[in-house]
Amino acid sequence: MSPSGKPVPPRDSLTTSEINKPDFRELDLGSPVSPLRSQPRGLTTTTTTSSSSSSSSGSLTRQQHPPVISRSGSVRGGSSSTQSGSSSGNQTRSDSVTSNSTSSATSPSSNVLPTGNICPSGKIQLTGMTQSRSRSDVLGSGTGTYGHGSIMRGGGGSSGVSPAKTVAPVTSRSGETVWKKAVLGSDAEEVKRVGNEMYRKGLFGEALKLYDRAIALSPANAAYRSNRAAALTGLGRVGEAVKECEEALRLDPNYGRAHQRLASLLIRLGQVDSGRKHLCFLGKPSDPMELQKLEAVEKHMSKCADARRVGDWKAALMEVDAAIVSGADFSPQLGMCKVEALLKLHRLDAAQSKLLEAPKVEPFPASCSQTRFSGMSCEAYTYYVKAQVEMALGRFENAVMAADKASQIDPRSNEVATLQNTVTLVARARVRGNDLYKSERYTEASSAYAEGLRLDPCNAILYCNRAACWFKLRMWERSIEDCNQALRFQPRYTKPLLRRAASYSKMERWAAAVSDYEALRKELPHDKEVAESLFHAQVALKKSRGEEVLNMEFGGEVEEVYSREQFKAAMNLPGVSVIHFSTASDHQCKQLSPFVDSLCTRYPSIHFLKVDIDKCPSIGNAENVRVVPTVKIYKNGTRVKEIVCPSKEVLEYSVRHYSS
């Protein structure tokens, strides 16, 4: 505030694209060295220019001689006559600009500079012309008096280079050296300048270290805090960036760039009310584009909360996505609302995945902790949703801890209190049911699980546990019903699928049992118990259809054939036999053999055999095998299929086709 009590306008006028950039001191175009238009060769012009960063003025004279760049990197101009006196006209430094000059009464020691632009980095764009100055000039390093890129006036005379401090621009070769020097330096402005160079290159970690050093040298500088927030944002550490902006505003409450940067961060976090306060801290928005973004985020978040309140989870999911696209791309509450919506739509796998991807703001800014979303604080809502996910996955102890944490953060929320009570009671019911089941008191155990289901009617774990009780009580139909409910809420939950398959087998509903066991084989391809259960169900199904099933035994390994007699016996086995002809030296055979082994495990009712035609050439000749790998399929002694160099997909399709 000004002494008169009126708000002091911000020191910065920003555009949307500049919000998250550090505070740079750009080149003052009123500098004594300004862009000059080239003149025709031979034409000499004298111009007097005043500097915004210096009170003195100089006389610039254009010479016809082109500049010469020395090996050390400095720029020297030619001269029309030999320099008089003891001055060293050829003295050069890599970070300053010097020249030879023509002696005169008014300009005893003039330097020659190339015409062109002096960039903020300190580099000079040559245009092929030179200019003469009355005193030695060097590029300023950026201080409280002289901005980076300004001209620092030398001390006159003929001593050559001014003793003023100069710094080489950061380049690909010297960047690392300059960075190290800056970290150890004692000039806060110079450290910040190198930090800005690192930020421009996208080296946010290095920039952050330099801004830390600048803050250590000058703790009360708000701009350094604001720059540190920009580097933290680049590193994805949004929570810390918010705290840095708040610290910058504590140091300078009227710092416009910090207000706007903080507003942008708060919009990304979905904190629209706080974001509006900083965006309009002077009574009107400092950036209309940011205001438009804020209003779009606010609209979709409001619709999302309304949809959640009435249980329209599909609409809530759509509004969450719309709010994220509008600009709230780092909002924890929106991320958790998406998780909750997927959970309520019984898409547990997707909910788990989105829970891992949800934005994590650590530490959670104190200024945002009391912001409310759908009736509860944003931080409490995160734990509220986690508790529901943990309970759905059967991790009841974790669910209780998450619900307790949500209650500690927001003890006033009725929704949080209700969830905490529900989670606690369901966890107790599950523990009591497990204890009763271990004691073989299956009826009482089923009642305990039923009590938990009354409180949480969508819990697949409790349905599966109660199905186990019905199975032990030989109540197969009830067991199947509870397994169906569990699979409804968690379609990829293998325990109820296994229990349902076993119940179908007990009821001799072999087709349904085979279907469930085949689904389990896809989920658990290396489970021998499931493979054997599938084999016996397939045999029983064949028997129920009146098919011949003589000498069918559960295998599990590919049988290697060593003689023609063994081969003939294998071909005449009842059922389906798959014979793989190969050689040990063939690369394709080596690739196919492990896949044949896996098929043998997955289709235990089929006989799998392997013939090495190098070891048994008589079998290869009798079967007319000329190319390996070759696979032949026999059914009840008759060849039904021959595949030369089969792909894995074609081979499995053929095996599955003839096994049914």
From TrEMBL:
Superkingdom per UniProt: Eukaryota
Entry's Gene Ontology BP terms: response to stress
Keyword Repeat: yes
Keywords assigned by UniProt, alphabetized: Repeat, TPR repeat
Pfam families tied to this protein: Thioredoxin (PF00085), TPR_16 (PF13432), TPR_8 (PF13181)
UniProt-listed InterPro entries: Thioredoxin-like_sf, Thioredoxin_domain, TPR-like_helical_dom_sf, TPR_rpt, TTL1-4
Bias (Low complexity) ranges: 42-61, 70-110
Residue ranges, annotated region (Disordered): 1-169
Ranges of the TPR repeats in the UniProt entry: 188-221, 380-413
GO cellular component entries: cytoplasm
Biased composition (Pro residues): 1-10
Domain Thioredoxin: 563-649
Biased composition (Gly residues): 141-159
Protein's name according to its UniProt entry: TPR repeat-containing thioredoxin TTL1
Record organism: Raphanus sativus
Lineage: Eukaryota, Viridiplantae, Streptophyta, Embryophyta, Tracheophyta
Gene encoding the protein: LOC108822455
